[in-house]
Amino acid sequence: MGKEESPQAARRTTRASCAAASNGEVGRSTITPLHNPTVSDLAFGGEPLSSEDLRSSFPARRPQILELVHLLGPHSSPMLPLFVYGGASTGKTTVILQVFRHLNRPFVYASCRTCYSPRILFESILNQLLLHRKNEANGYSSAKRCEKPSDFVNFLREDVGKVVDSLKDHSGKRKSNKSRRWPKGDILYLIIDNLELVREWDKSSSLLPFLFNLYDILKLPNFALIFVSSSSPDTYYSSMGYIEPIPVFFPEYTEEDLRQLLIRNQANQKLYSCFLDIVLRPFSRVTRRLDELSTVFSSLFQKYCEPLSDTSLFPNDEMKRRLFSHFRPYISPALNEIFWGPSQCLSGIESGKVTRQRGSIRKHEDNEDFTEIGFHMSTAAKYLLISAFLASRNPATLDASLFDSTGGSDNRKRKRKASEKSMEQKETVEQESLMKGPGTFPLERLLAIFQCITSVIDVSIDEEEHGDGFSTDGGNSSWLMSNVLSQLSSLCDANFIAKGGSCPLEGSTRYRCTISEDFALKVARSIKFALPNYLCRR
Amino acid sequence: MAVQSHARDAQNLLRSRLCNPSFVFKALSGSPDSNYSKLKFILSSSVTEACNNSLLLLGPRGSGKTAVLELVLNDLLEEYPDMISVIRLNGLLHNDDNCAFKEISRQLCMEHHLLFSKMASFDDNSQFLIAMLRECGLAHKTIVFVLEEFDLFAQGKQRLLYSLLDAMQSITSQAAVIGISCRLDADQLLEKRVRSRFSHRKLLFLPPSTEIIERLLQHILLLPMDSTLPNDYATQFNTKLESVLADERFKEILKNYLSSSSTINHLLRFLFVAVSSIDVKSGYPSLDNFKTALSSFRRQPKQECIKDCSILELYILTCIRRLESKEQKSYNFNSVMKEYKSIHDQFQTSDDYARNVCLRAFERLLQRDLICFSDNRGQGQSVEFRPVKCLISHFELQEGIKAYRSCPIILTKLLDR
C-alpha cells in the first residue's frame, strides 16, 4: 500500500486486486486450474494489514477509519445497514476495502458503475456468493439467471445461508486449517458501491426502496449491508420511505490533508514541499479533488525540476528563488488548463514558451495548441463545418442579406437609433440566445450556404489558376453531390454536428452545429476564410 | 486485559440484541391492551374458531409492525403446531399480480412438500390457491397471508387482493389476510369490490411514550446477571449505565434525538451507534457515547456539501443565486458565465478563470447535487446549454459561506446584495 506512487495509483490497484480476490482469484486460476474457489476467497486476498499500516496509509482519514471499525464491531456481531457518503475521490471505497482487509472479514463487493442494470447487479452478487467464475467452459454465463427483485431475495436467502454455514463450520475447526488464511467471523457483508448511479436507472423508483429495505426484507441476522455513494442521503428521498441507514461522512480533504497526501511517496520530499508551497494554494482554490490535482501536479513538477541537474538535492533559499522565477510563467496557464489532460497541458505550455522567446508572452492564448495540432479534415469538410456553424449561429431570415448582394441592400437605411425599449428587447434576445444554444437547421439550408461560400472561393481559386472565369455551375454542383453528403455524415459521427429529431411540420431531419466560436474561427483561419464577415452580430 | 474481552463480549451481546427486533418487542408484549395482545387474540380466533379475518396494521415506518406480527406468529406456531402456514408477500417484490400468485404457489408448495412448477400460468396458480385453501380448510389448517407494503398491492387492478378476500368469503376456507402499511389511508386505496370484502379492522402503531422508552432502554441495555459474563463486571456495567440513564443531560440528548425521529427502530439505530462507540479499553458506557451518536445523526448534508466546495465552485453558486434573485426564470452555464464575468469586471477579483475551468467546476457542482438540470429533455445537448436549477436556498448558501474557512469577503457581499 505504501509503495505505490500516488494515492490515486493506490486506489486503482486496490480495486483491481479486490475484484481478483472476490471473484475467486482469476489470475491464479489460469495457471493452476486445480485451484478450487473456497469461501476464504470472499475475504480480501493478500497479506493482512496491521492497524498501524492502515492508519499510516490514510493519514487524513483517521476519524473515518475509527468510526467504521467501531461500527463494524467485533467479529460475528451483527450490524445495521451503513451509508457511507462523501464527494468523489475522497477515498470511500479504498478505505472500506482496506478496513476489510485489516479486519479479514468476508464480503461481497458490487459497484453499480460496472453492474449497470438490476439484472447484472443481482447476478454479479450471486456469482460471488456461489464462488462462480465465468469462463470458457460455462460460456461466460452467470450461475443463476435472476432479473426480478423477488427472485433475487429468494436466491440470496439460500446462498447467504450456505456461505454462513460454511463460515461457521470453519470457525469451529480453525486451528486445523492454518495454511490458508480463513476469514474471521460468520457475518457476510455486502458492499454496494456508486449507489448514486441507480437513481438514473429505468426502474430506480422501485429499485432504490428495495435496496434500502433489503436488510429488513431478508431478516437474516448474519447479513450486513454497506452502501457507498457520492451524494448525500437527502438526495435519495422519494415518496417511498425507508429507515435511513446509519450515515458515515467522508469530507473533502483540506489543504493541509492534501499536502500530506501529495507529499507521500515522493522521492525528494523537501523539494516537493517547496513545489507545493507555490502551487497548492492557487490550485486548491479551483478544485480540491485529489485525482485532478495529482494529475496536474505530476506534470508541473517535472517543469519545476527542469533547471535542476540532480533532483535529490535539498534546495536552499537561493535555489528556491531561481526555481521559482523559472517556474512562475507556467503557473497561470496551468491554472486555466486544469480541465485538460496532462499531455495537452504540457503542449500548451510549450507553445507559451515559444511566444515568450519572441517577447510576447501576454499574447499567449490557452487554446494555442489547436493550430499546431491541425485537423486531418478535407477542405470540403472544413467548408461544410463552417457553413453548418453559420447556419446554427445566424437566423435563417438573414441568410439572404448575408449571401446575396441584392437581398439585404436596404438593411442599413432602416437602422434607427436604439431606444430604451429596443435595448431591453435586445437584452432579452441575447438572454434567449445564451439559453437556447446553437440553432437547428434543415439540410437544404446547410447545402445552400455551403454552395454560396464555396462558389465565392471557387471563383477566386479559378481566377488564380486559370486567369479566366472558366468554372461553370455544372462542375460546381457535381462536386457538391459526390462529396458533401458523405462528409456530412462523417462530421456527424465526429460529433461536430448533432442530428436532432425531425421537425413535425416539415418532416425532415434537423441538424445542429455543436462547435464553439473559437474553434470555428480557427478552422476558418486554416482555410483563409473570412468568417467574421459572415457572422451576424446582434 | 480481562475487562477488554468482557467489554467486547458485552458489546457483542448488546449489538445482537439491537439487531434482533423480536427481542426488543418482547418487552412490550406483556400488557393486555398492547397491539401484541390484540393481534394475538384475533389470529388465535382464526386458528381455533375457523373464522376468516382480515386486518391492517398501520403506523409510521419503523414502529415495529412486522416485528410484533412475527412475535405473534412465532408464538402461535409454537402453540398450535401444524395448524398454521404463513405466506409472506412484500409489495416491493411482488406488486404485479402474476408474480404474487407465483410466489404464493411457491411458498405453499415448499410448505406442503409439493412440486412447484415455474412454468405454471397465472390461471393455474390462482386455481391452485383456491384448491389449497379448500384442502387446508377441510384439514382445519389456517393459512395466514402477510402482505407487507400493503399500499403497493393496491396499485393496478388489485386482482390479488380481490381473489384472496373473495376466497375468504366461502365457508370452506380458513384464512387470515394481514396487511402492513405505513400509509394510514391504505384502506381508502381499495376498489369498491375489494373494499366490500375487507373487514376494515385496523391496528394503529403509535410512537412510544416516555415510559415505554425508559422501559425499553432498561430492557435492551442492561446486561443479564446470569450469562457467561462475570458477575462483578456486569454489576459494574449496569451501575454505570444506570447513572448515565438517570443523567439529565442524557435525557436532553434523547429528547433532542426523538423529537425528529420518534419510532422505536429509530431509537434502536441511535442506541446501536452509541453501543458501537463504547471504548473497549475502558470497557464501560459513558455519556460521550450517546453524544457521538447524536452528532452522527445530526448532519446537515447541504452544509457539508458547501464546505466541500472549492472557492471557484462557491463563486459559481453565488452567481446562480444572484441570477435567481434577479428573478430570471431559467438559466444555464452560459448565463452563469456571463454573470461571473460581470462580477469579475466590476470587482477585479483574483479568481478569474478560463471558461473551461469554470465548466469543470460547474460539472463538479452537478455531481455534488447542489445544482441539477431542470428538465430531462435535450440529452444530446451539451452541458453548457441545458437549463439548470439550484437545489439549495439562499439562506443555506449564506450560512455555508459564513462557516467556510478562508472564504473571500467579496462573496458574502455579493450574496447579500
TrEMBL record, chain A:
Its main location: nucleus. Coiled coil: none annotated. Residues 1-24, 401-434 are annotated as: Disordered. Residues 9-22 have a biased composition (Low complexity). Residues 377-535 form the Origin recognition complex subunit 5 C-terminal domain. This is Orc1-like AAA ATPase domain-containing protein. GO terms for cellular component: nuclear origin of replication recognition complex. Keywords: ATP-binding, DNA replication, Nucleotide-binding, Nucleus. Signal peptide: none annotated. Residues 58-214 form the Orc1-like AAA ATPase domain. It is found in: Nucleus. Residues 272-324 form the ORC5 lid domain. GO terms for biological process: DNA replication initiation. Belongs to the ORC5 family. Residues 419-429 have a biased composition (Basic and acidic residues). It comes from the Eukaryota.
From TrEMBL, chain B:
Residues 39-170 form the Orc1-like AAA ATPase domain. One of its GO terms (molecular function) is ATP binding. Residues 216-400 form the Origin recognition complex subunit 4 C-terminal domain. Its main location: nucleus. GO terms for cellular component: nuclear origin of replication recognition complex. InterPro entries: AAA_16 (IPR041664), ORC4 (IPR016527), ORC4_C (IPR032705), P-loop_NTPase (IPR027417). Keywords: ATP-binding, DNA replication, DNA-binding, Nucleotide-binding, Nucleus. One of its GO terms (biological process) is DNA replication initiation. It is found in: Nucleus. Component of the origin recognition complex (ORC) that binds origins of replication. DNA-binding is ATP-dependent. The specific DNA sequences that define origins of replication have not been identified yet. ORC is required to assemble the pre-replication complex necessary to initiate DNA replication. Belongs to the ORC4 family. This is Origin of replication complex subunit 4. It comes from Linum trigynum. The lineage of its organism: Eukaryota, Viridiplantae, Streptophyta, Embryophyta, Tracheophyta.
